[in-house]
Amino acid sequence: MSCIGNYKKLKVLRRIIIETMNNIHPIYNIKELMIKRELAKDPNMKNQNWSKFLPKFKKIHQKRRKMKRKQKNAYTPFPPE
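User: That's the sequence. What structure does it adopt?
Assistant: Structure tokens below.
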């Protein structure tokens, strides 16, 4: 990955790239950046805490189903009578 920009933007981009490599989809970071951009445009919101406006994504660990194994019958080389 190669990037050009100022230090703060590169720092954010580096975090996004590392999270993507750790199997976190980049759409979560893109949504957060879009919200931050809109909040930065508003002069009333520049000095406030933005944490309540940023999305909070939960990590969901789905339980896997256990496969039921069928017991195999004993092998007999002779057919039934």
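Helices lie at 7-21, 27-41.
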